[in-house]
Write a structure and sequence with these properties.
Elements (H helix, E strand, L loop, with lengths): L1 H30 L1 H9 L17 H9 L2
């Protein structure tokens, strides 16, 4: 080995660590921040959905209701 071998090995390992970090950072960007936050915290933040008995107002129901007035 010696100094030159240790220096080359350190250089190669450093490049591999940087590539590992960059690849995983790109995966977080493509998967979305909410997915990453879910992996770290153990739960995913989901917006509230309307209750089953509530009527969801759509664009058609709004236009239909205004036509009846």
């Amino acid at each position: 080995g010696g100094y030159e071998w240790a220096r080359a090995e350190h250089f190669i390992i450093t490049i591999l660590f940087v590539l590992f970090f960059v690849i995983h950072l790109l995966q977080v960007i493509f998967a979305g921040w909410n997915n990453f936050r879910g992996m770290v915290t153990g739960f995913e933040v989901v917006k509230d959905l309307p209750a089953a008995n509530e009527e969801v107002q759509t664009k058609d129901s709004i236009s239909t209701s205004t036509n009846n007035i």
